[in-house]
Every structure is written in C-alpha cells, then in structure tokens.
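Render this sequence as a predicted structure.
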Amino acid sequence: MRANFGAIGSRALRWAAIAAAAILLVGAVWMWKIAWRSPPHYVPRADIRVRAPIMSAAEYERVSASHARPFVYEATVGRGAVLVFGASHTKDPADPQIAEFRRRFSSFAPTAVLVEGRPGSPIAGIADPVRQFGEAGLAIALSRAASVSYWSWEPSRDGETGAMLFSFPKDRVALFYILRPYVSNLRHGKPADPNAALEAIRAKRVAWPGLEGSFASVAEIDSLWKRDFEGLPDWRDTSDEFGWPGYLSEIASRSRDLRTENMARSALDLCSKGERVLLVCGSSHAGRAKAAIVGEE
C-alpha cells in the first residue's frame, strides 16, 4: 500500500513538473509575441564605403518637392539587393503608405530589414505597431512574423554624440538631443503635458556620456530657449517637420549627415553578404542616400 502511495505521489510530481514546464513554455511564447526589445544597432564593417557622397541638405532642398512620397527605389547591389522605402512618417494605420509597405515587403521578400530608430517596448505586440512606432513598427512586426532578422540602421548613441560634441558646444548638443524626440513626435500630436513629456526625456539624456549634468530641469531649458530663440515659437510648439531654429538647425543637419551615411553603409554591408535588404527610413534620408547606395545614375 505504501509503495502504491509512493508511486502515485511520484507520478503526480512528474505531471506537476510537466504542467509547470508547459505553462512556462506558453508564457515564454506569449512574452515573445508581446514584448519587443529595441533592435540592436547594425555595425557596418570599417572598410565599407558609400558608392557616392551623401547628397547635401542644400541640394536635397532643391529637389525634395519633385520626388514621390513615399520615395521608394530598388536595385541589385553586389551579391545582394536593396529596397529603400522612404516614408513620410506616419502613425496612421489607414495611411496608403502602410498598405504599399505591406505589398512591397511581400513582393521583395527581404532576408534582412533595417529600420529607423529603435522601436520596442515590453507590450509592443499587444497594440497596433503603426500607431505605436509608425512604419518602422510595421517593418518589425512583419519581420518577426516572417522570421527575418532586423536591426536599427542608426549609429550608436555614443558614436553619434561623441562626434557632435567634437563639433559643437556641450549645452547646444544636450539641448538638441533632449528636444529631438519631442519635436520629432509633435507632428503626430502635442502631448497633454509637454513639460512632463520633456522631463522624462531630459532625466535620461543628461546621463549620457558627455552630456552629464547639462540641464538640471525643464526650467533651465526654458531659460536658455528664451535667451537664444527670442521671438520664435516656444519649444513646446516646435516640430522638426518644418526644420530646427537657429543653431539647432546646423546641429540637426550634421546629425542627419552622420545618420544617413551610417544607414547607407549598413545597407551596403548587408548587400555585400548577399542579403536582400529592406531599408525603412524617412523620405529625406532615402533621397539623400540614393546615389550613395545604388551609385550615380
């Protein structure tokens, strides 16, 4: 009798262990579906060079009105191929660009995807990826569904800020990086509490290497803004959709140059490995990088 109880107890423990393992497995799969880690930065090889210089901001201004949006082009590059989808940034799932992007992803069948920014969150898979992260969110959602590897084409944070600090004063660089997420998202709507939105960004970015202790509060940013941008709209009403004011314009232009070149080099590196690369970016990046990626026409 005791032996039977012992056997029953052992079987119960085994089934309990199996059930616990199954629950953990289901939980892990569920978490994988809903949690997106921000994509890693793609680091191109040091010897990868662009095929032509990045178009200057001034030259792009002269031609920007003449190209389609989204600005899309496709080419065979070395052993691989690239499709560049230069979007007008949107978080509207009904935007016609979103349907076009889905079609392009399906027909091109990428083996590698590069996205702008580093979209991700612990619950990203629950909500609409376009509403959360725009066209880059959709690119990641489709990549995950198709088991395609994806990266951010952005340069590393320390690499970019280090280059900017070499060229510009610390307080101006800090102001640019603190404001950049806010002014970039303003085109999608103004937050209910701009001060709180900026404070959340400020608190993190003043801890970046080289920017430590640059602004102790949003009030300090207000003070500098009033001093350096007198007569211009408040930062709370400034969107990069219409350019940056004053000296921030030069800093933004330099940042775009660095980012666009890194984007092009990342695509070329993957193409050199025989990958079919789908690259998602804003239309200005796509326009300025076309010759750099596919060569002069």
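Summary. The two ends are 88 Å apart (CA to CA). The first strand starts at residue 71 and ends at 77.
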